[in-house]
Structure of Thermonuclease family protein:
Amino acid sequence: MQALVFLLCACVSLEPAYVVIDGDTFVLAGERIRIANIDAPESQDAGCKTENQLAEQAKRQLESLLVTGFITVNRGDPVTGRLKGPDGDTLATVSIDGADVGEMMIEAGVARKASAGSARPAVLQASSSNVACIQATAGR
């Protein structure tokens, strides 16, 4: 009986099944997946501190959603039909126990609905202190 318990414990991984990259991208089973129906701010493209904070907020929200249930990945962008993004990421809609993750991110205020061909993630919240930053980085 002790050997059986040891074997069962040896098979359990402490590694998470996924790694969140940012508010709309994560790696699942070695595959990098970009949630096709949303845009979220990304810290690597942040033009100012506020935008970087928004990116971190979006990332944390996605992390908190992915732990809540069974993840289903439906490959392909529902608007364009493309399977891969320009960076090679798999484009997909993602659901947790049947609920659309993109819609949940939008409802949480950390992402916006993706527009066809959008190249830059959304900057979602503009206060008077960061409008200049957003305008300066919007053309990148």
